[in-house]
Amino acid sequence: MNSSHINKILTAACIAASALAVTACSDGFFDRYPSDSMQMETYLTNDSEAENILLDAYYYLRTVQEDVIMVNGLCTDEAYDYKKNNQADYISLNEGTWDATSATIDAIWANCYSMINRCNSVLDKIGNVSEKNRKQYEGEACMLRAYAYFTLVRLFGPVPLTEHVVDDYSDLYNYGRSPEKDVYALIGNDLGKAAVCLPPHYSEAGKAGRATSTAAKVMMADTHMTLGDFGAARKVLEEVIGYAKANPASLGLLDDYASVFDSQNPVNKEIIFVAQFNNGATVVANYLMKRCIPAVSPNDQPAYTLPDGTASTILTTQGVGCLLMTWDLYNRLRSNPTDKRYSQMVYDRLYDASQGTSRQTEEVDVNDNGDAFTPATLKYFDMHNQGLKTCASGCDDIIYRYADVLLMYAECLNETNATAEAKKYLDAVRHRAGLAGTQVTSQSEMRLAIEDERLLELCFEGHRWYDLNRTGRINKVMTAHFNHRVKGLSAPLQANNNGMAVTDCNDASGRPLEWRWNDSDGRILFPIPYSQLQLSGGWKQNPGY
Predict the structure, then answer these.
(1) Count of domains in the chain?
(2) H or E segment at 311?
């Protein structure tokens, strides 16, 4: 990756200006763009400069996590892209036809390494930081670097590994692709340091959203689970759960599911690690809201109906419509009328201003333009700033939360032959959602029950692709999804409009879509971006591309 390529993904703000514009612990701590240049020989000589470099790393945390959420949704049975904006990259992800030219995949790679380089710069110069802040900054840099490498190794397998600043990005490729065991070793070391250096929780104003030792431990457990070491993951998660029991005001489940995603209640006690946006952000805002609103152009320009029955001020014409809920997922959430995850966090009714009424999306015809009104998630819908013309949201991208911890722990218990005990932690999540406890008893049944609960509880939060790859079930689940998708996706809509088909059922030539890896076993890796292969001069591409 050469310097010009990197500069394309950075903004024009200069580091000197950033230093003047940003102050630690302010309300706008995360509301900034990264710098476009760093003079490594002369920069990072004091605490203020180290803080600014860390802010750059947090910026990339947001950009990477947004793309991670898109990939985990569009590449699995969570989400549909209905092609209304002709965004070829998102369509290819959703149809399973992506390749090494994917812009989203390239962006994850590039932004992860930009994040790593910022963290490396802090760690290289940590001796220039005051004793007061040294442990804090070292812990944050280690945590953020671990996140970037964990993202890379899960998506791409072996990747270049560097623990020091790379001034010329093209030099990165002299490192080659390091074995996965070496990448995981660095991740483990970084998370171990972060767990020691960082506090488990912040009580100081303005520090919410920064890395903690609790977040480091949860990610450490996630790495153990990814590697199949459920015993080690279980021990780490027991520490986290023990802390929650001892500190219920700082960590635990919220009573109200919808409150977890409230932009005016960010980094609440359920949140463990988050890519944070500001409510009403002026510089950096969350555009996942826009992507979760269908892009349609009917004459009456309907709005979605909010859970309280009122009409939203956001019209369907303002959306991008590339991260919409699959009918399979929607029907599963809707199947239980007591499930708060459906009633509180799914928007599936359109408000017709001309009639003053709302209709459920499955009752709405495919219109003359071939647009389909489909259900979507409310997790990124900023209820307090919904009138923003750009549909920019202040809602955060959650990476880990306590409900995830309980489900992870249930999985670890089940995989270490403690199935009866696992039920307790699975049911804690189910009960908060308004559901009765699970009735499964065998290890194999519990395994599938946990998988299902993770889909319903954590959908659109960036877990599904990782989960299915970890359990080895991605090909089985996705083959079944594509088979059902072709046959039954638009049945309710077709019945209302004389058989008009939703365009998402078929490829561009009209052929039924198929899951491309339906005859393969094991996990699936994404391709090394084509631009990086050209620079590397000899790297072997991942299988299947």
Answers:
(1) 2
(2) strand 311-315
- Chain centre distance of CA 399: 6
Residue 23 forms part of a structural domain: yes
Q: Domain check: are 314 and 190 in the same one?
A: no
**Angle, CA 115 vertex, CA 109 and CA 118 arms, to 5°:** 145
CB 458 within 8 A of CB 406: no
**Helix (H, G, I), strand (E, B), or coil: what is residue 344?**
coil
For 393, the 3-state DSSP assignment is strand
Find the domain containing 164 and state its range: 1-198+463-472+523-545
Identify whether residues 194 and 297 lie together within a single domain: no
The dihedral formed by the CA atoms of 286, 97, 477 and 438, expressed in degrees to the nearest 10: 10
Is residue 447 one of the residues assigned to a domain? Answer: no
Number of other residues whose CB lies within 10 A of the CB of residue 498: 8
Neighbour-count burial for 31-50, b at 16+ CB within 10 Å, e otherwise = bbbbbbebeeeebbeebebb
In this structure, how many other beta carbons lie within 10 angstroms of the beta carbon of residue 521? 8
Domain end call among 371, 395, 419: 395
Tell me whether residue 39 is in a domain: yes
Q: pLDDT digit string (tens) for 259-295?
A: 999 988 888 999 999 998 875 555 567 889 888 887 6
CA–CA gap between residue 289 and residue 380 (Å, rounded): 5
Q: In angstroms, rounded to a whole number, what is the distance separating the alpha carbons of residues 246 and 307?
A: 35
Is the same domain home to 379 and 467?
no
Q: Given 395, 430, 448, which residue is the final one in a domain?
A: 395
Q: Decide: 74 and 96 in contact? Cβ < 8 Å.
A: no
Q: Are 348 and 302 in contact (CB under 8 A)?
A: no
Please give the Cα distance from 236 to 243 (Å, whole number): 11
* Phi/psi of residue 274, nearest 5 degrees: -150, 145
The answer to whether residues 227 and 523 touch, using CB atoms and an 8 Å cutoff, is no
Q: What is the CATH number of the domain that holds 543?
A: 1.25.40.390
- Over residues 446-495, the pLDDT tens digits come to 999 999 999 999 999 999 999 999 999 999 999 988 887 654 333 333 33
Is residue 543 domain-resident? yes
Same domain, 132 and 36: yes
Classify residue 134 by burial, with Cβ atoms within 10 Å: 0-12, 13-18, 19+: middle
Residues 6+ apart with CB under 8 A from 248: 269
